Amino acid sequence: MSAKSPISLLKIGIGVAALAGLGIVVSNYRQPESKEPIAVASPVVGPTFATQTGTIHLSDPNSTTIQLGILPLGAIRELEIEISGSKGGTLREVQSSCSCLQLASLPKDLPTSNFTLNARYFAVATGGVDVTVAMDQIDASGTSRIATFRMVGEVMPGDAARSAQLTELVKTPTLALGSADPAMFVSAKQAHLSVSSKQGILVDVRSVEEFAREHAVESLNIPLAELRPSMAFRDREIFLIGPAIVTDPMQKACARLKQQGMDRVSIVEGGVSAWQVAGGKVFQELDPQPAIGSLTVNDVVQRVTPLAVKFCGLGLGDEFVFRYHFPNGQLFPADAVPAEVIEQQLAAEPSATLVLIDQSGKNYGSLNQNAPAHWLGRVYYIQSSFDEYLQEVSHFSELATAPIAQQTSTVNGFARRDKMQRVTRPSSPGCGTCPK
Predict the structure, then answer these.
(1) Which of 162-176, 280-294, 320-334 has the highest mean pLDDT?
(2) Could you tell me whether strands 309-314 and 330-332 are parallel, antiparallel, or unpaired per DSSP bridges?
């Protein structure tokens, strides 16, 4: 980009005066001419990990430009783009024509309201960067709505070992995480009030095994794959409750039920732990009940973004690999993080959910021994190792990118059994007070 038109962030739909008020330099700005010689400073190379933002309005003819600056080879950037004017539909086309950057997978399904598009890109080769990503959205009415954003900057040589490591990492496609649709969510407190007054029905969509270990006493268990519209649910508020982190299959199931006539269906934020914090009764297999909640590796792999979730790696060793998968995460050297460190993380981000992952996946009990009660609904632990998470990411990515000719039959991105094959469901011990 020319030095005469620096752009740090161009927010579409806002006048030049408003942009100036925000401290944003617009593209038609001209520097006053100076006869004094200008000293050429050494380029300032940015950090290896960083988050950058932009704003887009669908169908706006202009483009948002994001100034990347000078990137070191091997840099990883998290991209957060606020998108307004969405009417739902499919992200049909993404175009990019720069060999210096590799853009991670973007979600194909777009929400029906304003949302944040999260993506990652990686500096994989040196040279000038000028990339335009064009999104062609087809909404429910069949109307094409186009938006673009442009990234400019330069990639300079960096750490050779890290660059080689990134070259290997990007050979495995990154997860195409779905985008959260805020219109589908409801707080646990609001859901609890409705269910307590007999206005609503609480449906736990997790597996039978997960339900048996922990569930809200007031809930019915209907696994996600078996969830169908029912006359028994009509004229009632339906609250779907599942993992603490909302998953893409769960959000799609909610959208499908709405399309099939169940307008009053929504997802309870925070899962069972949030339900308990809101005053709901919970059956828990473990005694005493843990203050740190648990998540499965599938919950994390299939999560939607953006959600106020911060990942903390415990004793994983290689920060670069960890930050490749969790760009905004933080790595700690030991498997057992002191309680005061977690308290600091929670205080720094009061609305965030803290998710812990380590190399063994077997420290759930020890971490809970000294966990204070107020961590309930805020702190969670993935009961799988980091290596198992990486294997699941690779497996999920391979299935998601499999050629159509393979005719792979999947549910939520994973291979499923033949429809004619019955699956024996294990019996649930229950808690003695759950609705039958």
Answers:
(1) 280-294
(2) parallel
The pLDDT value recorded for residue 25 is: 29
Structure-token match 């330069």, residue found: 154
**What does the pLDDT read at residue 395?**
81
User: What amino acid is encoded at 430 in this protein?
Assistant: G
Sign of the Cα torsion 12, 156, 48, 70 reads negative
Q: Could you write out the three-class secondary structure of 112-181?
A: CCCEEEEEEEEECCCEEEEEEEEEEEECCCCCEEEEEEEEEEEEECCCHHHHHHHHHHCCCCCCCCEECC
Tell me the CA distances in angstroms from 224 to 90, 98, 165, 221, 366, one per residue in order.
22, 40, 38, 9, 32
Q: Of all residues in the chain, what percent carry a pLDDT higher than 90?
A: 21
Rounded to whole angstroms, how far apart are CA atoms 359 and 354?
Answer: 17
Q: Is 244 in contact with 295 (CB distance < 8 Å)?
A: yes
**Which of these ranges, 96-105, 198-207, 219-228, 425-434, has the smallest mean pLDDT?**
425-434
Residue 427: the pLDDT is: 41
Q: Residue 222 burial (CB < 10 Å; 0-12/13-18/19+)?
A: middle
Per-residue pLDDT at 5 exceeds 50: no
Dihedral (Cα; 374, 343, 331, 387), 10-degree rounding: -20
3-state secondary structure of 266: strand
Residue 80's DSSP bridge partners are 53, 118
103, 121 contact by CB (below 8 A)? yes
